[in-house]
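INTERNAL AUDIT FORM
Audit reference: QA-55
Scope: verify that the stored structure record matches its stored sequence.
Auditor: D.O.
Record contents follow.
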Amino acid sequence: MKKLLGRSDIDDALRSLDKLTQEENLMAAAQGLRATHGIAEAVNRVASNIYGVDGQVEGRRRRG
């Protein structure tokens, strides 16, 4: 159809839109991974604190 109209600008615009859409999807995925990584770090910190408290409780049980 573009040959009939002699307009490649529409095709160029659609290619640009497709490229931008792909980049936006990649950016959204990267943000999701960043958020997931942050949550994993927070969970690991909480787990570490729990293990520390557990060790303290066990130490007090052995003394008491």
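Auditor finding: record pair retrieved intact. The mean pLDDT is 88.
Action required: none
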